[in-house]
Structure formats: C-alpha cells, structure tokens
Amino acid sequence: MSSVPRFWRSLGSRYNLEGTHCKECGEYFYPPRNVCVNCRRMGELESFKFKGTGEIVTYTLIHTAAEGFENQAPYTLAIIKLDEGPQLTSQVIGDPDKIQIGTRVKSVFRKLGEDGDRGMIYYGTKFIPADA
Amino acid sequence: MRDVAIIGIKNTKFGELWERSLRDIVVEAGIGAIEDTSVSGKDIDALYVGNMSGGRFVDQEHIGALIADYSGLSRNLHVPATRVEAACASGGLALRQAIMSVASGYSDIVVAAGAEKMTDVGSEEAASALAAAADREWEGMAGATFPGLYAMIAKLHMHRYGTTSEQLAEVAVKNHKNGCFNPIAQYKNKITVDDVLNSIMVADPLHIFDCSPITDGASALVLAPADVAHKYTDTPIYIKATAQASDTLALHDRRDITTLDATVMAAKRAYSMAKLKPEDIDLVEVHDCFTIAEICAIEDLGFAEKGKGGIVTENGETAIGGRIPVNTSGGLKACGHPVGATGIKQAVEIATQLRGDAGKRQVAGAEYGMTHNVGGSGATAVIHIFSRER
C-alpha cells in the first residue's frame, strides 16, 4: 500500500461504507463511482451510506497472503453482495467453517493491514457472519 | 483494410533465466523471428512490444526504446517502437496493434514482440507486481491476491456447476503432458491429479499446481501484408480475426463471476470477423493462468457449454487428439507465463501448428487456430484467429 494520501482520501468509503447512488437510474455503487455505468454523463450521482448488510457471493481462504497481510494468513476473502445491490471484495473474519456461499454478513470496523513494523496501520471495513 | 500474414516466429526458452537480462531475451526473440524470414532490419517499419511491468520487475520503463535500441534499430534506422500494456494481455494487445498497423497501410513489415523478465525480483515482489493487474484500491487493499481472485471464481463455479478439484487438476495434468513435447517449455515433467491435489494450498480451492509459474521469456512475430507474404516466407500464416473487449477492472463488479464477459464479447467479434464458428477451430491456446481460467475460457469461447468445462476436460476432449486440443504448447501452466510474452507465444504456437512444425505435439491437419489472452481477472480479453490458407 505504502501511500498515506492514497488511503486517506478514501477514508469515508473505507471506514463508513460510503458509496454513490445515481438519482437518474437508481443504481447504487460501492466502491463509489463518479460516472454512472448506465447513464454515463446523463447520470446524477449523490453520496450514499450503505447499511453494511449483505451476503457472500463467493469466497476463498487465502493461505499465501498478499504483501502486508502476512500475519493474518490464512484469511477469508469474499465477494459480498450488499443488500442495496453492489458487490465488493472484503475479508470475512471468524470461523472459516461457518462461511459459505449465501451466508448473511454484516460490516465491522477492523484493522486491514500495515506497512511493515514501523509504517502506517490501515483500518477499514471487514465483515462477520450476521448471526455472530 | 489489408489482409495480414505472419511471416516469422520465434520464442526464447521459457524459464528462470538467471544469466540473461530483459534486453538479452527480447533481442534473441526479435532477431530469431526476423531470421525466420528473408526480411532485413532496414525493411522494418515499426515495432510493438508487450510488456506488463518492466518498472516493477526490472525497474525499467521506456521498454519500446530499449528494445529498438538493443535490436540495432535505433541509432541508424530510427524505427518507431511502442510498448503496449494490458497486464497479462500485453502480448496479445501488442500483436493486435501490429496487425492494425499493417492492415491500415501505415506500415508494411512490423515486428510484434512480447517479453517479461520476472526473476530479477523475489517471488513476493513479483506477486505484488502481478496483483497490480487487479484493482489495487478495492481488491488489493482488502488483501486480494491473484490466486485469491481466481479461487473465488473457482469456488462459485464448483458450487453452481459441480466442477471438482480433480477436474481442475486435469487441466494442469494435460498441460504438463503437452509441455513435455515443447522444447521451450519451463516444465517438461508429467504430473498426476494427486500431485496437484497434494501440492500446497495457495487460495482454496487452488493449489500451487493449479497456478501458472513465474517465468522469464520473450517471443516475437514478424507481420507483412498478405499480398506480399510469399516474398518473405514459404509458409505464411494468415490473420483471420483480431478482437478485443473490456470488462470491469474488479472481479466483484462483473455481471457473472464465473463468466468472463470480455472473453465472450471478444470471441463473438472474432468469430464474426473470421466468418467462423467454434466448431471450425482446430486448436486453441487459452489463457490458463490458473486451471479454473482454462475451464472458464473453453466455456466462454464456445468450446463447451457453460458449466461443462470441467467434464469436457476430464473426458479428454481438450487433449491433443481430442475434439478441440487446448494449449498444445503446455499453456501458461507448463510452458510458463512471462506475462508480457504470453500473448505472442500463443500466436507463435498456433503458427507452428498451422505450419505443421509442432513435432510430437502436432495437431493433425490443423487449418484454423485461435489464441485467447486475458488481462487481470478478465478486464481485458484479446482473441486472434489464424488460418493456414488465406
């Protein structure tokens, strides 16, 4: 990661699941988009805060971690469909045996990763099973 | 538009080439391809080179200029050289740019090359560079790896269609078997389904033997207008179609996680341009960066019904001698995957097959071949169709 401004400028989205909503066609976007994929220049986008509930579309248990995530391995990574419609990629924490396709999940605020021993620590959104 | 032909081909050895630099291997490929024709350096009008990440892998950008220079095409001849980047589809896209350059009439003799030197950095740095083909901000920062993204495709494919880990493993087994007959392949050893299933888990359900390796290698083609191709070679191979399509950068934004719509759309455009159907194609090189990728590819290209890619593979229909041989070169899995070179290597393999020069891996009587090159988890797909007769 290793860029403070790059992370900082999207803190609203990363901490609070802020995305966008097109008033023209009604589609919701997370991660946020500033151009609607349906209406393009004719779209009218507004900020929108997602509830943070949804279900697992697919997932994997990552054993060989991404750079900066080594001490979290193995970790569950999933594509989650938010109830408002959009899909996002996030970690799901908790017992991997309780995670399946279709499992209902909710968002939680957690540490995401870090830049080595002395670098920045990144916080943001992960998910846990909704009944946890 | 003019018809375009391949008049020269060359792959370097693929593998961990510790003693050789990026410029060494790309010059070997380029000069080899030229020597496969009667063209001379002063005939070359343009050079396109596919390279994903010289900046990350060898700390070198401006790859077009570097390659023209060390090929002896700069100081006296000043041949224009352009680097093309679309992650792992960089090579296929370089070929497409070269074809368009000749077809349009802007250029006559054009070299399309691809190269990647991946072992000058450690495997963690290489993996991080490759992960830049995905969405760094919204996949990478969540902890996604490339195997992880394809593992999520595999997981859903298995859930929805009943595809098994054994069927995934069969892709690797077949491609290793094919690689044994390809002199340039990184791996020339046979493996079994058990070898794959017992190899370490990278991202469930993908084992390390479900993944293509880190590879150094370069490939090159020489293109000419079809009308004059026989002046430079006795065995021109004709481009019947070049097609490309885009999809969302992030996997999570796709219409369907188990379908690469970019592949579907590029294939539709390619078949239409060539006036051919899937059943007309005699062999195909698909982008098997992971075993699940080959299964999705044969479905999305129309060689298997959606969801049946695993069964078709298990039944041997994609083996040499089968209904539609897939990845006779050994594919990315066994031949190796120097990312920028792969798209060009695929075309070299098809040209070798259509010339009838593929030795023990020859597909008998091959008339039409296809290449399928993917960038990232499917945000770019490039497809070419080639023929033996014009």
Short descriptors:
heterodimer, A: 132 residues, mainly beta, 5-stranded antiparallel sheet, 3-stranded antiparallel sheet, 2 helices, 42% strand, globular, B: 390 residues, alpha/beta, Peroxisomal Thiolase, Chain A, domain 1, 9-stranded mixed sheet, two-stranded antiparallel sheet, 11 strands
Task: Provide a short characterization of the protein structure.
The complex is a heterodimer of chains A (132) and B (390). With 132 residues, chain A is mainly beta. Chain A is 8% helix and 42% strand.
Would you mind describing this structure in some detail?
Helix content of chain A is 8%, strand content 42%. Chain A is built from 2 helices and 8 strands, in the order ααββββββββ. Chain A has helices at residues 4-8, 11-16, and strands spanning 18-22, 28-29, 45-49, 53-62, 75-82, 87-92, 104-114, 121-129. Chain B has helices at residues 22-35, 54-57, 63-70, 90-103, 123-131, 146-161, 165-179, 193-198, 261-274, 291-300, 309-314, 331-335, 339-355; strands spanning 4-11, 44-50, 81-84, 109-116, 201-203, 206-207, 217-225, 237-246, 283-285, 368-375, 380-387. Chain B has a 9-stranded mixed β-sheet with strand order 3-2-4-7-1-8-11-10-9, with helices on both faces. In chain B, strands 5-6 form a two-stranded antiparallel sheet. Chains A and B meet through strand 4, strand 5 and strand 6 of A and helix 5, helix 6 and strand 5 of B.
End-to-end Cα distance of chain B, whole Å, is 15 Å
Strand order of the largest sheet of chain B: 3-2-4-7-1-8-11-10-9
Tell me the series of helices and strands of chain A, N- to C-terminal.
Answer: HHEEEEEEEE
Counting copies of identical and different chains, the oligomeric state is: heterodimer
Tally of individual domains of chain A: 1
Chain pair sharing the greatest interface? A-B, 34 and 34 residues
- Calculate the terminal CA-CA distance of chain A, rounded to whole Å: 30 Å
Portion of residues in beta strands of chain B equals 15-25%
Poorly predicted tracts of residues of chain A: none
What characteristic shape of chain A results from the CA principal axes?
A: globular
- Treating each run of at least 4 consecutive H or I residues as one helix, how many helices of chain A? 2
Helix content of chain A: under 10%
Sheet bearing the most strands of chain A, described? Answer: 5 strands, antiparallel
Using the alpha-carbon principal axes, give the shape of chain B. Answer: globular
